[in-house]
Amino acid sequence: MKNIWVVTTFLFIFMFIILIFYHLYYRMNIKHITKQLEEIMNLKDTNQLLTVVAKQRDITNLVNQLNKLIRDIRLSRIHIKRLNKNFRQSITNISHDLRTPLTTASGYVQMLQTSVTEEEYKEYLAIILERQNMVKILLEQLFEYVRIESGEITYEHVPIDAKKVLVDTLTMYYDDFYKKGQEPTVHLPEKPCIIQGDEQAVKRIFSNILFNAIVHGNGGYWFEIHEADSSYIFTFSNLSEPMARDDLDYIFERSYTKDKSRNKKTTGLGLTIAKEITGRLNGTIEAFYNNGKFSIYISFPKV
C-alpha cells in the first residue's frame, strides 16, 4: 500500500512538472509572438511574419491565422495607398483641365474688351464658346463618373439592337468627322446585332469612344461589327501617334491622358466611363496599338 502511494505521488509530481514546463513554453511563445507583433505593426515597410519558439499545435494555428491577417492588412495598405495616390493625381489633373479652358476664355474675354475688328470679335467669341463647352463636358463626365462609382446609376438588361445604337451614335458625330475632313469606313452586318443591355448606356459607351477618336485620332477611322460564335465585337480604329505599352495599360484609368503636357481636350474620364459601363453590362473592352493604328475592341454577349 505504501509503495502504491509513493508511485502515485511520484506520477503526480512528474505530471505537475510537465504541466509547469508546458505552461512556461506556452507563455514564452505568447510573449515572443506579442513582441514580434508589436515590432511588425510599428514597422511600415517590412515583410516580416510571426514565428514560434516551440511548436505547439494551437499556437501554430494561431500564428498562421495572424500571419494571414497581417498579409491581408499589408495588401489593404498598398491598395489604399495606391488609391490615394491615384485620387490625388486625379484631382490635380481635373483641376488643371478645368483651369486651362477657363484661363484661356478669361484671356479672350479681356481681349474682347479692347478695340477689336468684327472678324477678331467673331473669332474670339467662338474660342470662348468652345472653352465653355469644354468645361461643360468635363463637369458632366466627372458627375457621371461619380454617380457610376457610387452605384447611383442602374442599367437595364433588355434585348437591344446594338448595330442601330452604333449607327445612331455615328450620325451624331458626322459633322465632327466632316470638319476634320475625314470620312470613316464603316462595316456592319446586314442583320440586327441583339445584345442584352441598356440602350442609353451603350450609346454612352460608343459616344465616349468616338469622341476620344475625334479628339486624339489622326484620321484613318475604321468602325466595324464582327459576329463571333457567342458575342458581337465592336471595333473602333484610327491612326495615332506612337503609343507605349504603359499607355495601353493605363488608358482606361481615371483622368489618364497620353499627352503628359495635358494640352488635350479631355481628361480621359470618357474612356474610364466607357469601361465602367461596359463591365456593368457584362461586356469587355480592350485597347491595342499596332503599326500606327490605335484600336478599341468591345465585346458583348449575344442574346
Task: Provide a compact summary of the structure.
It catalyses: ATP + protein L-histidine = ADP + protein N-phospho-L-histidine. This protein has 303 residues and is α+β, with helices and mostly antiparallel strands.
Task: Please provide a written account of the structure.
By secondary structure, this protein is α+β, with helices and mostly antiparallel strands. It folds into three domains: 2-42 and 49-78; 79-149, Helix Hairpins; 158-301, Heat Shock Protein 90. 60% of the residues lie in helices and 14% in strands. It has helices spanning 2-42, 57-112, 118-149, 162-172, 174-179, 199-216, 245-250, 269-280, and strands at 158-161, 185-187, 194-197, 222-227, 231-239, 284-290, 293-301. A hairpin with a 2-residue loop joins β6 and β7. α3 packs parallel to α8 (269-280). Mean pLDDT is 83; it is low at 260-267.
Report the major sheet: 5 strands, mixed
CATH architecture classification name of the largest domain: 2-Layer Sandwich
- Which shape, going by the Cα principal axes? elongated
How many E-type strands? Answer: 7
Enumerate how many helices there are, as a single number.
8
- What average pLDDT do the residues reach? 83
Instruction: Tell me the CATH topology of the largest domain.
Output: Heat Shock Protein 90
Helix content: 55-70%
Order of helices and strands: HHHEHHEEHEEHHEE
**Regions with pLDDT < 50 over 5+ consecutive residues?**
260-267
How much strand content do the residues show? Answer: 5-15%
Protein name: histidine kinase
Catalytic activity: ATP + protein L-histidine = ADP + protein N-phospho-L-histidine
Main location: membrane
Subcellular location: Membrane
